[in-house]
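Thread: "does anyone have the structure for this chain?"

Original post by V.I.:
We have the sequence but no experimental structure in hand. Need at least a predicted one for the grant figures.
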Amino acid sequence: MEEDNVRRMLEEVASGQLVVEDALARLRGLPFEDLGFAKVDLHRSLRRGFPEVIYCRGKTPEQIAAIVERLRAAGSIALASRADAQVAAFISERFDDVAYDEDAQIISVGQVPEPADTYPPLVVLSAGTSDIPVARQATLTARAGGCPVEEVFDVGVAGLHRLLHYRDLLDQAGALVVVAGMEGALPSVVGGLVSAPVIAVPTSVGYGASFGGVAALLAMLNSCAGGVAVVNIDNGFGAGLIGAMICKQSRKCDT
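Reply from O.Q.:
Generated one for you, tokens below.
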């Protein structure tokens, strides 16, 4: 249930095209659709400003397609994360307006909204090229929410001058998503340079003692720079969603 749909319904009530009882029937409770294997939350976009996102691991292509169908019927863009090429091909055969980012493993079905120029941008940084797939998760998620995004890749602490080249862009950000593996140092550096919130994303990139991203996670949790929050290992989706919410809230504070 998108905000635009609710607005149209209220306008129909105001104009007399729709009786109040029928409008109440549509709005009663928090609507979801029970597919048996999933209960699709059709109210989430109105409640939280972002529709339900499908996590593909552990679901069959048929189940994913059924959830996509219900989200699209409700007027929402459908976003599916952790989707492999086989799932993407299956969805592309059944729906129009499908985009798939193989690096990020994200499928979007439906038109991605134009970013609002009234929001400050979310700046997404990756420490290394190997961290780009997780960074792209953040970018695509935020853009699906209508948030403008600027990407800067491969600016890790092994060559700090590369990051400083983008100092003006960092200062314009409403929030920053900083993605790093190995020792996970980049979010602390960025956190010491900017006034906006930093969302740190540890990745599983690294050698043996990185323990699949645990070393980066612990480093970020122990950052001495204030204003750095941390999401789970490889959770670019979560970081992108939080970053978009922060940027969009900043407009409300300015009005």
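V.I.: this helps a lot. The first strand starts at residue 32 and ends at 34.
O.Q.: and The chain has eleven helices and eleven strands.
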